[in-house]
Amino acid sequence: xxxxxxxxxxxxxxxxxxxxxxxxxxxxxxxxxxxxxxxxxxxxxxxxxxxxxxxxxxxxxxxxxxxxxxxxxxxxxxxxxxxxxxxxxxxxxxxxxxxxxxxxxxxxxxxxxxxxxxxxxxxxxxxxxxxxxxxxxxxxxxxxxxxxxxxxxxxxxxxxxxxxxxxxxxxxxxxxxxxxxxxxxxxxxxxxxxxxxxxxxxxxxxxxxxxxxxxxxxxxxxxxxxxxxxxxxxxxxxxxxxxxxxxx
Length: 248
Ligand code: HEM
Known about the structure:
Blueprint: H1 10-13, H2 16-20, H3 32-61, H4 65-89, H5 94-100, H6 113-122, H7 127-135, H8 141-148, H9 152-162, H10 167-170, H11 178-208, H12 221-227, H13 234-241
Helix pairs in contact: 3-4, 3-6, 4-11, 6-8, 11-12
């Protein structure tokens, strides 16, 4: 076993020289650093979320419900962090953003490959989503690979089959089972994701106003509001209605 304790220190282990050299404001405005840091930090968390989603899918593939539950707990914690970060940008007043917005050119969060990959791994397949993906030229490899996989919901339903049970049975059993808690953790993920979308729309309205178009060429907040209804786990939402005689 090699002992490299003498060579590694805080700065080198975390590659801080590189990391802290990557914030490069293009304008002299003092608020641009915050704008860059929140975006970069979000992308780092997206990276970790994608990593955890891979581990989650491995657990699903091995039909290991407890490990799947473990990774869902972490993913939900990460989603809460990503949403909370947006609040830092609520302190960016419109007159400040207006002063450096033109330096962004046509760059826009809608070009975030990792965000699209998270949506695709999670199971978004709605025509609107696929259309948005195609509008930005060839679909990046990371997203292509995610689209080629089954949706998370399918992995979960497959796990239920391996345990010889059905979704509805989880909600009618006498006592909550591990599979029930896993279903609820998936639903919480969907909710957390929706909360990020909602917090982001509100941020956009606050900074740009409800009718200003985005740098990515969309209708801005109006376009984003439409994405809030997109669902990863339609079966988990539908199962609830069955108890109220509205199976549809
Ligand atoms: C002042 C702050 C922000 C403003 C004004 C803003 C504005 C916008 C607008 C207008 C769009 C629609 C696409 C377009 O036409 O550009 C958008 C999309 C998006 N933004 Fe932001 N954004 C902000 C902060 C953030 C942050 C911190 C992130 C984190 C990475 C982010 C990630 C995204 C993503 C992923 C999309 C695509 C959403 C989708 O299509 O469902 N944004 N943003």
